[in-house]
Write a structure and sequence with these properties.
Largest sheet: 9 strands, mixed
Number of strands: 9
Radius of gyration: 18 Å
CATH architecture of the largest domain: Alpha-Beta Barrel
CATH superfamily of the largest domain: Metal-dependent hydrolases
Bound molecules: adenosine monophosphate, zinc ion, fe (iii) ion
CATH topology of the largest domain: TIM Barrel
Distance between the termini: 34 Å
Structural class: alpha/beta
Strand content: 15-25%
Helix content: 40-55%
CATH class of the largest domain: Alpha Beta
Length: 278
């Protein structure tokens, strides 16, 4: 059976693999199709696409956009994006700028707590336009200020902890529109992570095409519940490991196995939309 993993990060956001390493790992896991979904960027997609083409693997250019609905942070996956789309690139560039400013603010707060973390060290480690809390956490570990990533999040970075700084977020509706005008499909990411099922009808009304039923942090019961929700709202079903490379433990790539027919359904929806638009 052909298998896909549609939720993957590289070092163009907070993963540790390069796009080429990601494709190599996907090949070793026997995946027929992968999507790259770095946070608020599509920058790694060109390199991943080239690496995938070289080994005849199917590649879907994507992104994981940070959005909000009713004051709840929601992640929205965009698939089959035109990565040259001007509006998309301009919009996500704004979010990247805010992410960079946020790093300065988080480090300032950590410094106020007496930990002399250097902001330049965080940017050097992140080495990308879309830095986030995992980069701060990894720099804290590297500097010997905490023992591990969990301690960094527990002491400083988790919501409610002293160095937590909110991200700027677009509304879920704006994210959907941005994805659609770039030719893509919008999918609700890991709904089970935030336990915010009550907002799903509102997200569907905002124009979502699909829901990520299969995810590393979804139990079997959760996946079944989201499959029922997908059926009820006529949503596409997606799934992925949310692999961040070696940033936490063993790479997760390939541990969530999405049967390829779901990818076929995604492509059919894109084709139908193109025909309707012509
Ligand atoms: P950010 O986008 O900067 O808010 O960072 C979010 C990322 O941090 C998520 O994608 C996770 O990869 C990671 N993350 C969130 N909470 C934790 C945690 N408690 N321990 C380790 N990583 C975390
Ligand atoms: Zn992440
Ligand atoms: Fe996410
Ligand atoms: Fe993710």
């Amino acid at each position: 059976m052909k298998i896909a993993d549609l939720h993957l990060h590289t070092n163009f956001s907070d993963g540790t693999f390069t796009p080429e390493e990601l494709v190599l790992n996907a090949q070793n896991k026997g995946l027929a199709c992968i999507a790259l979904t770095d946070h608020d960027t599509v920058e790694g997609c060109a390199r991943a696409a080239a690496a995938a083409a070289a080994v005849q693997m199917e590649f879907i250019p994507g992104s994981e956009l940070t959005a909000e609905y009713d004051d709840t942070e929601v992640h929205i996956l965009g698939y089959f994006l035109d990565t040259q789309n001007r509006t998309l690139l301009d919009e996500i560039a704004k979010f990247q700028t805010v992410r960079q400013q946020r790093i300065h603010e988080m480090v300032a707060r950590i410094n106020e707590l007496g930990v002399p973390l250097q902001v330049a060290d965080v940017f050097a480690l992140a080495n990308c336009k879309s830095p986030g809390r995992p980069h701060v956490a990894r720099t804290l570990v590297k500097g010997g200020y905490v023992r591990n990533l969990d301690e960094a999040f527990e002491r400083f970075l988790k919501k409610g902890r002293p160095a937590w700084v909110p991200k700027s977020k677009m509304s879920a509706r704006e994210a959907v529109e941005l994805i659609h005008q770039a030719g893509g499909l919008a999918v609700i990411a890991h709904p089970g992570l935030n336990r915010t099922d009550e907002i799903i009808p509102g997200l569907v009304a905002a124009g979502m095409d699909g829901i990520e039923c299969f995810h590393t942090k979804h139990s079997t019961q959760m996946a079944e519940r989201y499959l029922e929700i997908a059926d009820k709202f006529n949503l596409l079903v997606t799934g992925g490991s949310d692999c961040h490379g070696f940033s936490k433990a063993k790479p997760l790539i390939g541990t969530v196995k999405l049967p390829y027919d779901h990818v076929e359904r995604m492509k059919a929806k894109i084709s139908a939309r193109k025909i309707a638009g012509n």
